[in-house]
């Protein structure tokens, strides 16, 4: 966090992340260190002089939770709002999921609407999330009737998550996870779990599965 917010190093994060880090923020949900850099760049472009301060930091097993606040000036474009020079102040939380001193998931929670209200008279309209319809959308795309647990397993598997991450976030034994996968693969026409990512890409379910995985990890 010091590297990003205090030293402005948001474009060089490889030393801190696994290659397929899961990224969840109000402005971007995706996978990979470059995508996290892109999400952070949105804030630095809009508010290049942000002053960051941590209020609390808690560690529990594989999770780090940070409550923080920042202040700065609106000196660049932010979510379509041109620079106004107005001062901004907001707070939020960041959750990090870590194994072997590397970040596997980066989840930031910020009330973007409160930020936009400080710089623009126009109300902020958040993108509609898939919410409870995510599992239904997967089955509709596949013309199948997979269970939510089967879809959960596929979502984490297509991201090649570490077995410890899978077991921890689904709250099941790894052997149970493997049983779910072995029963699901024939249903989607696969023989090996190594092919799940390519299958998700070709079946147009990758984006939804990534979103489901982010909900489980973060």
Mean pLDDT across all amino acids: 86
- Indicate the structural class: alpha+beta
Gyration radius over CA = 19 Å
Query: N- to C-terminal separation?
Result: 17 Å
Q: Residue share in helices?
A: 25-40%
Uncertain spans: none
Shape: elongated
Note the beta-strand portion.
Answer: 25-35%
Order of H and E elements: HEEHEEEEHHHHHHH
Number of strands: 6
Q: Your description of this structure?
A:
The chain is of the alpha+beta class. Helix content is 39%, strand content 26%. It has 9 helices and 6 strands. It has a 6-stranded mixed β-sheet, with helices on both faces. Strand 1 and strand 2 form a beta hairpin. Helix 4 runs antiparallel to helix 9, helix 5 packs across helix 7 and helix 5 crosses helix 9. It is elongated and about 60 Å long. 27% of the residues are buried. The mean pLDDT is 86.
SSE blueprint and pairings:
Elements: H1 2-6, E1 17-25, E2 28-31, H2 33-46, E3 51-60, E4 63-73, E5 87-99, E6 102-110, H3 112-119, H4 134-142, H5 148-157, H6 163-170, H7 174-184, H8 196-202, H9 206-217
Parallel strand pairs: 1-6
Antiparallel strand pairs: 1-2, 3-4, 4-5, 5-6
Helix pairs in contact: 4-9, 5-7, 5-9
Short account of what is shown:
It is built from 9 helices and 6 strands, in the order αββαββββααααααα. The chain is an alpha+beta fold and 218 residues long.
What keywords describe this structure?
single chain; 218 residues; alpha+beta; six-stranded mixed sheet; 9 helices; 6 strands; 39% helix
